[in-house]
Design a protein that fits this description.
RNA polymerase, sigma-24 subunit, ECF subfamily; sigma factor activity; about 0% strand; about 75% helix; mainly alpha
Length: about 180
């Protein structure tokens, strides 16, 4: 589907195809950008700039082999450039995290325990080395494949696998600790 849209945009300058592609990838790119930049409006701007540049590529767009990886890599590079220019780093906002479960079905005590548990998980994720943290988020939160992550981050799939193993080992410490209680 994405390849078809890519060719429609590149060779036919089809605005409808561009709109379809934008709708298809926008939310994923925005969430990805928010990993780097904890500012939704700025992340929106970065994603929009990347998409505008995609449109401006015209026929060169047809030369891109994996458009999805290209878009994620472009957003990553723009975000890093922004951070480099202003030396601003992101932080997780734990207070704004909502539970996946419906609040109506659980007691206040259970919800409180789950939020504390979630805070522990987020702290473990934050404590991971930056590259390891990013690999974990791209695979587990955004559902990207090892190959896509390796292309976006310009590392080998084996390195992606190793980063994910490290992340899972660190997170398993929480589960082991919880079982001992």
């Amino acid at each position: 589907m994405i390849d078809h849209l890519k060719y429609e945009i590149a060779f036919n300058r089809n605005e409808n195809a561009f709109h379809q592609l934008f709708v298809k990838v926008h939310s994923s790119l925005l969430k990805f950008c928010l990993i780097y930049i904890n500012d939704k409006s700025l992340s929106e701007e970065i994603v929009s700039d990347v998409m505008l540049n995609l449109w401006l590529m015209e026929e060169r767009l047809g030369e891109i082999e994996n458009l999805k990886s290209y878009l994620f890599r472009s957003v990553k590079n723009r975000a890093i450039n922004y951070l480099t220019n202003i030396r601003k780093f992101t932080e997780w906002d734990i207070d704004n995290i909502s539970l996946v479960h419906s609040i109506d079905n659980y007691s206040p005590e259970f919800i409180s325990i789950e939020k504390e548990y979630l805070k522990e998980v987020l702290k473990k994720i934050e404590a991971l080395p930056p590259q390891c943290q990013l690999v974990f988020k791209l695979i587990r939160e955004y559902g990207l494949s090892y190959k896509q992550v390796s292309e976006i981050l310009d590392i080998s799939p084996k390195t992606v696998d190793r980063h994910l193993q490290i992340a899972m080992q660190k997170l398993s410490e929480i589960f082991q600790h919880k079982r001992k209680k």
